[in-house]
User: Which sequence fits this backbone?
């Protein structure tokens, strides 16, 4: 099983570089991240001992870029008529979904690694909390995994990569923009139970607490569950196409 997943991962991950998309995405990621950190996050005005200005805007950057990484993973299979051939191979749905997901998630890791020079450069001018920075990268990777799973699922429902990108972008933005605190507090008139539930559903709340150094099991579980839910829906959608 792992060999099949690895083979699919290598094929999809390599396709980013064969098409030249990888270099374009890395350049766009660097530009967006630096602009967001330096201008939106006031990087030079704040004491960024934990690179907070950089990490704070990563979900927004990933929301724009991850749909572009995932839009072709399944949409192209349908567009070129290779989905039926792929599903006829002696591969499980889980292996196919995992391999494609890991390719997109692995590229997100590569983008994050491209920001390491910022960490090294900043360390020349101030004493950094390196443990907190590692937690920040870990938090970004978890958030990217959840968005990749969503993007892969949306791609499996469309034969047009552009449509898949727009739909995945809309879903990711909705996940980030919807304020469950406001909705559930209004509905429950301030019930403590509903306040706790609403807080547990907010993407930004979990991410913000983690990059602030407040690593807790609840926030980690939130992103893992969101990722697994997206992957499960991806497997279900592929199974439905096969049937």
Assistant:
């Amino acid at each position: 099983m792992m060999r099949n997943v690895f083979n699919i991962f290598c094929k999809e991950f390599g396709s980013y570089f064969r098409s030249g998309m990888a270099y374009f995405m890395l350049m766009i990621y660097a530009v967006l991240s630096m602009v967001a950190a330096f201008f939106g996050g006031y990087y030079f005005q704040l004491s960024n001992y934990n690179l907070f200005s950089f990490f704070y805007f990563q979900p927004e950057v990933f929301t724009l870029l991850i749909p572009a990484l995932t839009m072709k993973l399944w949409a192209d299979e349908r567009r070129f008529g290779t989905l039926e051939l792929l599903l006829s191979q002696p591969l499980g749905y889980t292996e196919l979904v995992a391999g494609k997901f890991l390719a997109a998630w692995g590229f997100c890791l590569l983008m994050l690694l491209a920001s390491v020079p910022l960490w090294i450069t900043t360390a020349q001018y101030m004493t950094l909390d390196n443990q907190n920075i590692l937690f920040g990268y870990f938090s970004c990777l978890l958030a990217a995994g959840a968005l990749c799973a969503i993007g892969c699922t949306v791609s499996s429902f469309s034969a047009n990569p552009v449509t898949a990108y727009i739909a995945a972008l809309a879903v990711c933005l909705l996940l980030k923009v919807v304020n469950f605190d406001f909705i559930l507090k209004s509905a429950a008139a301030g019930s403590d139970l509903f306040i706790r539930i609403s807080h547990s559903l907010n993407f930004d709340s979990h991410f913000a607490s983690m990059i602030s150094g407040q690593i807790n099991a609840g926030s980690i579980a939130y992103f893992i569950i969101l990722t697994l839910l997206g992957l499960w829906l991806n497997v279900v959608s592929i199974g439905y196409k096969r049937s």
Q: What stands out?
A: Residues 64 and 132 are 25 Å apart (CA to CA). DSSP finds 13 helices and no strands in the chain.
